[in-house]
Amino acid sequence: MNDEILELAKQILDYTPIKNHEIPDIDLYMDQVTSFMENKLKAFKRSDDDIILTKTMINNYTKNKLIAPPIKKKYSKENMMMLIFIYHLKQTLSIGDIGDLLNFMVSSTDGINIDDLYDKFLLAQKNSSASFIKGLDDKLNFLDKTNTEDKTKNEQLFLLISELILSANIQKRMAEKIIDCYFKDSDNKK
């Protein structure tokens, strides 16, 4: 069963991230933005019915100041990068937390280089994928050590799912704690 689970993990991680040079340098209209995101992020869909990004979502992100407003109804490369950040962050964080986290980029006068930050984000994504496989293998080995003959396959899968969720919850809580400590209070922003 361990090999099957590791194969499932490899399927999840078998995606090509949107590299900086793949994001158009020309400004795009809303329909072009949603089409681009749908095409490039489709590997993250759980089912064909899942929607990556809608016009309403983008308008809400703009209204909530998560991204800069479009200029003449066109979205810049920086807007696109911000939308990619938001897409990944919203899988775990609330929109409020994402706003607190990204606010330093939208309102910064320090000259944040979003291109550079985006490239580092891609490296973090790659590192996270490698760490996930190692962590999953560790979880499977732990379950094997605690395995008894009377455990059914469903019980083993339940325990694995529990391990994954418990780990994800701890990581989410840690991310929220960092946001609360460093990004919520303007006096503490770095």
TrEMBL record:
It comes from the Bacteria. SUPFAM superfamilies: Putative DNA-binding domain (SSF46955). This is DUF1836 domain-containing protein.
